[in-house]
Amino acid sequence: MTMTSDKKRQILAILTLIVPICLLLSTSLYAAFQLRHADRLEVIDKGKLLYLEGDVTLQSGDRKITSQRSLWNKRSGILEFVGNVCLKEPDLVLSAEKLIYNEQTEEGEAYDNITVKTPTVYGMGGKGIYLGKDSLVYIIEDPSLFYYDTVTNEVTELCGDTIFIFLSDSTVRAGGNTRGQRNDAEGNLVLSWFSRQSYFFPNGDSVRLEDSVFLDIDTLFATTDTFHYSETNGEFVMMGDCRIWQRYTSLRGKEVRGKIWEDTLRSVAFPSGISGEFPVDSLYPSRLSEFRARWARFSFQKGRVDRAIFRDDVSLYYLPEPTEESLREKNLVFADSSYAFFTVGEMDSIYLWVNVDGAY
């Protein structure tokens, strides 16, 4: 039985279509993706372009990408995914409406309502950059990130111009005008901040802030150069130009160490020197006592200072009726029988017990 020329041409046409598809399914370009499924496949430009549609699934090792449609440039290794895009790895789920991925560099750009999920954090924003070789995802265009502590039920929220998520150790860094807050299990605010740089370490459950830091800690407001807080032991450290305010009280120093326990501020210490002012008259809280010391520690009860200890070279100034002259000279020795101006020479320390109304 001889084959007609028309039959030969039909067989040749079928082979021309089948061979590129077989090559695609049996091998992967740049040792990267393999096509696992597509409802429709169209070969363009002799196999240089592939158009995939309908439940598209491509996979390379543990990395899988699914979408509704995809255009695969086999020559350049660029893939464009559109519609319900999802990139999955063992510790990452990246979702978006559009993803442009480079097989050679293992990098991608995700657009439109992106979300990033890892075992510890959940992020969202308008655009995301995926760097596979660096195990890094960063979110730009109004990014935000949330961390839920399954042990304490506390929630940490972080926003900034750019948020970086390091997949290898779950570290998070926010750059630009960053802001964040931490709430307890009942939704009460424990800590909030503004800064130029924010670092969040979910595995160690700690926060580090740098550059122009503004803080709201329980009942205190503070500014500093750097701030580090550990949820494990509730301790925090402020370094640089540190300033703390609570109502009329103002404290300044180069180093501040404090403790937050059961979501409440317990103590603040100044181990490297302190200066400031606090009210000593319940009737006139704006009348302040100025002080300096090489060391100080404040204890808190229900958000208020209930004890203050000053040590080493302590100086206290009390101005009962501030005037332009008294503020300029600061030379009042005794205000009344209850309050005094101290110049400590032979005395190493002064202890002050402070209540809500003032000092006594």
Task: Kindly describe this structure.
The protein is mostly beta strands. It has two helices and 26 strands. The protein has helices spanning 5-26, 324-329, and strands at 34-37, 40-44, 49-60, 63-73, 78-89, 92-102, 107-117, 121-131, 136-140, 144-148, 155-159, 162-166, 171-183, 189-201, 206-217, 220-230, 235-246, 249-261, 264-270, 274-279, 288-293, 295-301, 304-311, 315-318, 342-343, 349-352. It has a six-stranded antiparallel barrel with strand order 8-9-12-13-11-10. The longest helix has 22 residues, at 5-26. It is elongated. 28% of the residues are buried.
- What would the principal axes of the Cα set say about the shape? elongated
Task: Provide the residue-averaged pLDDT.
Answer: 78
**Spatial order of the strands in the main sheet?**
8-9-12-13-11-10
Main sheet properties: 6 strands, antiparallel, barrel
- Runs in which pLDDT lies below 50 for 5 or more consecutive residues are 14-31, 326-360
What structural category do the secondary elements indicate?
Answer: mainly beta
User: What count of helical segments does DSSP give?
Assistant: 2
N-to-C SSE string, H for helix and E for strand? HEEEEEEEEEEEEEEEEEEEEEEEEHEE
Number of DSSP-assigned strands: 26
- Classify the helix fraction into a percent range: under 10%
**Radius of gyration over alpha carbons?**
32 Å
The CA-CA distance between the termini, in Å, is: 118 Å
In terms of topology, how is this protein built?
Elements: H1 5-26, E1 34-37, E2 40-44, E3 49-60, E4 63-73, E5 78-89, E6 92-102, E7 107-117, E8 121-131, E9 136-140, E10 144-148, E11 155-159, E12 162-166, E13 171-183, E14 189-201, E15 206-217, E16 220-230, E17 235-246, E18 249-261, E19 264-270, E20 274-279, E21 288-293, E22 295-301, E23 304-311, E24 315-318, H2 324-329, E25 342-343, E26 349-352
Antiparallel strand pairs: 1-3, 2-3, 3-4, 4-5, 5-6, 6-7, 7-8, 8-9, 8-10, 9-12, 10-11, 11-13, 12-13, 13-14, 14-15, 15-16, 16-17, 17-18, 18-19, 18-20, 19-22, 20-21, 21-24, 22-23, 23-26, 24-25
